[in-house]
Amino acid sequence: MRINLVILFMMFLRISFAQINSVLSDLPVYPFIHYDLNRFELIHDNPGYKILYAKFDTLLRQGSNRINIVHIGGSHIQADIYTHRMRQELQSFFPGVLGARGFFFPFKIAQTNSPSNLRISYTGKWTTCKNTQPEPTLTLGLSGITSALISDTAVISVIANYDSITSYDFNRVRVYCNAVSESCLPVLSPCNLVKNVSINKSAGFIQYDLTSYADTLNLLICRGDSIRPFELYGISLDNDDPGIVYNAIGVNGAMLKSYLQCNLFADQLKSLEPDWVIISIGTNEGNTRDFDEPAYKAEYIRLIKLINNTVPDAAVLLTVP
């Protein structure tokens, strides 16, 4: 019996490698692409990846684990095209481990492109600040973009689509903002779904725990203090289900220095409890004749150290340099 299993396993490997070679042989030949270099290089016995792999093992064997991924980048991440494909693949490779939608910014408020997998509408007048500005005028969080309400009230509506058939449901909502006074908190409706509201001042978010799962939310927001109006840093849709939470965070034109000037970056990154942080930054730095290699390297080291100090157990992957 054991010999038969070995033979079957060897046949499986042979078929798998044959399929891989077939795919590689079908790739177009371009002199400027080095296919042999397109691979992940991991430091031997990297402790962050040992923890990450162990969590994946538990998820596959027991179906009772949660893995949080934070992917940071520029315009290619803001559009959430290939990151959403990654989200779909990771959330469908094992039955019953869909996970949650996670963190996002409602870019429509900022008059810029939004992921197609979320339906967002809003009212009210807003002004926006981005981490790509040389001197940001508003406090910036993990998303790298902040919208401040300049009208008296506003409503943000979100329908968490997954695809044309299913949608992400949630029973926990976090609104990352500067409203930490109980007298002027955003009101989430329908109100009868909200069983508890709590405030995290250090990370700057309000958490709404719901009595049941929902896939649509409406937030009624008041402008608040005339000196410091309501500022929105992002929204997170979460639940208690096992699986993968793939948080895609990007701003058009963002560079390393863009995220280094986000005041609440560390506190809000820590609040997402990431197991894996993926950094896809560098395209915008390299797209110039005046590329400053020493400055680029120094900023990369600063960002990696910031992440390591904030979430020391998280694995880190660099995909652009």
Structure annotation, total helices: 8
Instruction: Using the CA coordinates, give the radius of gyration.
Output: 22 Å
Largest β sheet strand count, sense and barrel closure: 7 strands, antiparallel
First and last CA, distance: 49 Å
| Number of E-state strands | 15
What value does the average pLDDT take? Answer: 87
Q: Regions with pLDDT < 50 over 5+ consecutive residues?
A: 1-20
**Helix fraction bin:** 25-40%
User: What would you call the structural class?
Assistant: alpha+beta
- SSE succession: HHEHHEEEEEEEEEEEEHHEHHE
Estimated share of beta-strand residues: 25-35%
The gross shape turns out to be globular
Q: What does this protein structure show overall?
A:
It is a single chain. This protein has 321 residues and is an alpha+beta fold. It is built from 8 helices and 15 strands. Strands 2, 4, 5, 7, 9, 10 and 12 form a 7-stranded antiparallel sheet that branches. The radius of gyration is 22 Å and the shape is globular. Residues 1-20 have low confidence and may be disordered.
